[in-house]
Amino acid sequence: MLSKTSQRSLPENESWCQALQERSGPSHPNSRREPAQPNVTGIVSSNSKAQRLPTGVQPVVGVGDTLVSQLSSLPKFDVLIDTVGGPNLAGLLDRVRPGGRAALVGYTHGSNVTLHLPNFLMSDVKILPVNMIRRAEEQAALAPLMSEKIVSGEIVSPVQEFPLSQVSVALDALASGQLTGRAVLIP
Length: 187
What we know:
By secondary structure, this protein is α/β, with parallel strands linked by helices.
């Protein structure tokens, strides 16, 4: 989530969330189907993914230079929550205000990023890795609540089915970021 620079505390600021559903679909904690504050923007790679954003989230659709160009006309933001990584990350970090933070959650669009260190150091943006593997106890504590929400239909995880014979197609869709939700192989 990126938040517009302000003198106020973060919850009262204008904010955005990159790839709210690109990585995990609506089952990801950052993409609940609860109405979002009207100042939240989801950065997604396609119009079909933009349609899946929670109510109240303003979509920005784009990748690469197109995305960076769209964002350059907007004010800098306080916080970035990045769930996809990859080549867009450096451009997104440039859109965070000095003293802002970036929480890195995933890397489905790529595990490497190149930063221009002098510019990055001058930006004074804190990068915070989020390692969910180390949070097994927290996940276990949330399991009953999450299970209840899944059973009730409050949380829905989109699934794309692929015949087992098309495992390479499924992997290509995952690697290219064109997969919405989870891939399921059907024997």
